């Protein structure tokens, strides 16, 4: 039996085993491309018009006004480009009623700073908690050697070492309580939000479940001071806020010093990451004894330092050294030669002498109180770039020299530009070329959605966290233009491309799901942060 011969195979016919390449979607007509670009430019111009309404504004160097001598010293020491709003008081301890004052900048971009402007105090409040401990010891209501197990007999401590921590160890940062651990799972979210303590655990819940690390060595701890505040309230049998007000604030006339959980007080100097860049204030009053969510005025802190100078303040024993030449748990965690009182830091400063001081800082506020026994200084600022401790030491000495300033790091500049442009550029290139730039995968609806959401998320994030005092806002607007143009082209292509066109479908779908969830989370948190800051 014979079979018919197979027809010849043309030489240019590819083998049947060769992978088939999906055809590329048709290119958008020039008219559609021009409309997409015009839409991008129009939205970008609109964002430039609206940017002044957002928390980020351009800022110029603030001028220093006030008493000529102090103003000259502040100008000699401080980079005005770092200032959003600033208040400084200085006085001789033998005449605390004759304080010099200077002010610079604004509380909110328009309202001038004054002696009664509320600022976030941050950790300056720790001296008040230390003075409260000293006052209660003097009254016989507690003892520095009292342990947490004695103060909280019903608490079930996970670590016996923590149960034996004393009040004095808490007040001198020798308790071994690592401050970062109390923020729990919310710490990453807090970084995006910029309110580092929004999701921090209740101090007593934290201390019951934590373990001690490096106890006996100096290790600065906000958590330790929050626990100390709860312990003192328990010892006195009075609400923590009422106890501080009755024993410390009212005797000193510090009527404007309050803990707030609902945002910036009226007329307050809201925090700024840098001049012109408004960020979220801190609101967790559970940590008020450590300085979180506490607001005060330059006038109030000057009253405190005047009472210290007159030796009339409650709990003055807190300024006496309790721990000498502290040994930090981690290298570089404390200045060399540092002594500790109850809350107060005691340090021999070159060209000044021994200074009793405490500084404070959030991600957008800086503060400092200090005395060398002859002069005292108070500093409050609502921008992170003001290096308050160095400025305070300089103003106590003669002929202040420029102090180091917190400048925008080059990596921040690179991140600001790249995160403004990278995702929008990838989206626009995908919609224009109908293939991804790197892997050359064809355009599909899943890629339009994932890159569109990614562009939105990163644009919101970098608007919230970018170095916009040095990077022109037009960079962000260019990213918006690319994103809008890319989305417009993607919308035109939507009916012409498949839902999914990945090489490995299971991998493409998995990456799509995770990237979409990440983008929605990042966009939601960044948008929320902008709205709450606004």
Gist of the model:
The protein has helices spanning 30-50, 68-77, 126-138, 148-151, 160-163, 167-171, 187-193, 203-209, 222-236, 240-252, 298-309, 388-396, 410-433, 445-465, 473-493, 505-533, and strands at residues 64-66, 85-92, 100-105, 119-120, 258-259, 272-274, 277-278, 294-296, 339-340, 345-349, 353-361, 366-371, 375-381. By secondary structure, it is α+β, with helices and mostly antiparallel strands. A hairpin with a 3-residue loop joins strand 10 (345-349) and strand 11.
Tell me the strand order in the biggest sheet.
Answer: 1-3-2-13-12-11-10-9
Number of helices: 16
**Which shape, going by the Cα principal axes?**
globular
Radius of gyration: 30 Å
Q: Which parts are unreliable, with pLDDT below 50 for 5 consecutive residues or more?
A: 1-7, 11-20
Number of strands: 13
Helical/strand content category: alpha+beta
What does this structure look like?
The protein has 534 residues and is an alpha+beta fold. Helices cover 40% and strands 11% of the residues. It is built from 16 helices and 13 strands. It has an eight-stranded antiparallel beta sheet with strand order 1-3-2-13-12-11-10-9, sandwiched between helices. The chain has a three-stranded antiparallel beta sheet with strand order 4-8-5. Strands 6-7 form a two-stranded antiparallel sheet. Strand 11 and strand 12 (366-371) form a beta hairpin. Helix 3 (126-138) packs parallel to helix 9. The longest helix is centred in the last third of the chain and has 29 residues, at 505-533. It is globular, with a radius of gyration of 30 Å. The termini are far apart. Mean pLDDT is 88; it is low at 1-7 and 11-20.
């Amino acid at each position: 039996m014979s079979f018919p011969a197979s027809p010849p195979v043309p030489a240019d016919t590819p083998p049947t085993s060769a992978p088939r390449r999906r055809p590329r979607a048709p290119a958008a007509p020039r008219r559609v491309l021009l409309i997409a670009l015009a839409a991008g430019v129009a939205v970008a111009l609109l964002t430039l018009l609206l940017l002044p309404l957002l928390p980020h504004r351009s800022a110029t160097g603030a001028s220093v006004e006030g008493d000529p001598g102090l103003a000259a010293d502040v100008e000699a020491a401080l980079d005005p480009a770092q200032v959003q709003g600033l208040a400084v008081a200085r006085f001789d301890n033998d005449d605390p009623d004759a304080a010099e004052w200077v002010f610079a900048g604004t509380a909110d971009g328009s309202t001038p700073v004054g002696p009664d402007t509320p600022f976030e105090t941050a950790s300056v409040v720790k001296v008040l908690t230390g003075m409260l401990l000293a006052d209660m010891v003097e009254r016989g209501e507690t003892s520095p050697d009292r342990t947490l197990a004695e103060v909280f007999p019903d608490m079930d401590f996970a670590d016996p070492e923590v149960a034996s921590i004393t009040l004095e160890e808490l007040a001198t940062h020798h308790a071994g309580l690592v401050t970062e651990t109390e923020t729990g799972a919310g710490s990453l979210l807090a970084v995006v939000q910029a309110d580092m303590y929004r999701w921090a655990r209740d101090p007593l819940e934290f201390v019951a479940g934590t373990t001690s690390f490096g106890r006996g060595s100096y290790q600065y701890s906000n958590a330790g001071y929050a626990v100390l505040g709860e312990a003192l309230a328990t010892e006195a049998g009075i609400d923590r806020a009422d106890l501080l007000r009755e024993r410390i604030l009212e005797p000193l006339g510090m009527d404007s010093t309050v803990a707030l959980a609902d945002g910036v007080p009226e007329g307050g100097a809201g925090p700024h990451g840098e001049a012109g860049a408004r960020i979220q204030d801190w609101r967790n009053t559970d940590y008020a004894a450590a300085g979180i969510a506490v607001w005060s005025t330059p006038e109030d802190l000057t009253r405190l330092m005047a009472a210290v100078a007159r030796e009339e303040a409650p709990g003055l024993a807190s300024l006496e050294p309790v721990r000498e030449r502290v040994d930090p748990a981690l290298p570089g965690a404390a200045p060399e030669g540092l002594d500790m009182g109850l809350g107060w830091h005691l340090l021999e400063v070159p060209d000044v002498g021994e200074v009793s001081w405490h500084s404070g800082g959030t991600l957008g506020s800086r503060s400092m109180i200090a005395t060398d026994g002859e002069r005292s200084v108070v500093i409050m600022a609502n921008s992170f770039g003001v290096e308050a401790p160095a400025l305070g030491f300089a103003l106590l000495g003669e002929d202040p020299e420029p102090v180091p300033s917190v400048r925008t790091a080059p990596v921040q500049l690179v991140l600001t530009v790249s995160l403004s442009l990278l995702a929008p550029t990838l989206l626009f290139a995908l919609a224009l070329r109908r293939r991804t730039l790197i892997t050359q995968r064809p355009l599909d609806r899943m890629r339009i959605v994932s890159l569109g959401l990614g562009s939105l998320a990163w644009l919101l994030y970098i608007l919230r966290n970018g170095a916009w005092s040095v990077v022109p806002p037009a960079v962000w607007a260019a990213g918006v233009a690319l994103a809008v143009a890319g989305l417009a082209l993607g919308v035109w292509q939507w009916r012409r491309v498949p839902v999914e066109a990945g090489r490995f479908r299971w991998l493409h779908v998995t990456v799509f799901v995770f990237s979409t969830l990440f983008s929605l989370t990042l966009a939601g948190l960044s948008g929320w942060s902008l709205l709450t800051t606004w």
